[in-house]
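Blinded run. Sample ID left blank on purpose so nobody reads anything into the name before looking at the predicted structure. Input follows.
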Amino acid sequence: MSKLAGKVAVVTGASKGIGAAIAKGLAAEGAAVVVNYASSQAGADAVVEAITANGGKAIAVQGDVTIAAQAHGLIEAAVARFGRLDVLVNNSGIYEFAPVEAITEEHYRRLFDVNVLGTLLATQAAVKHLGEGGSVINISSAGTDVLAPTTAAYTGTKGAVNAITGVLANELAPRRIRVNAVSPGYVVTEGTHTAGIVGSEMEAGLVAQTRFGRAGRPEDIAGVVTFLASDDAGWVTGQRITASGGIH
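Blinded prediction complete.
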């Protein structure tokens, strides 16, 4: 039997990249998946089509997780369509880099609103429906270990996500809801292509830091998330798993 048969999962920011791979990975193990998107309906629809073409269940739901009403609406839509909620993957996130002299209020608020506030609001909405055995999985970053120059605001958001993960693991433990984080290293996505990282000296440096000597793929992260969503991880909570090819 598939590891997630009968379970319902919401993946925020799932229209492309790591989020899309996570949604597909969860569906492949039997979960019904809500593919959340903020603006890219075409991308979300493509993910849903890929899942359903393989015999899975999925719907696309628009919602900006930085707005409480929309975050709650996303979760309510999942429950209304599939009748329950078992897994929340807080994947929505943005990355922008700037030296400390160039950090602006807008830059700071944009990053913290999506990466931190969005995680809190989506989780707040989800915990009303998660029961015993429920799983919250936050997508952090191996950047909190690397501490690269020009990433103060971005790395700060992921440090906050790590702290939130630990606090909520303690807070929700009496309800037997597990909370964990996955910290990807460098992963090739649409975003890294758009940012010009793919094929650049920066990419070469990032790959050189991994023990496996290659860039990550979205599927590398999806497999770890699928494990944490499943009952195989029933004794795992409050943990941060770094999936980075052994970054050092």
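Unblinding after everyone has recorded impressions. The beta strands are 8-11, 32-37, 57-62, 85-90, 130-139, 178-184, 240-243.
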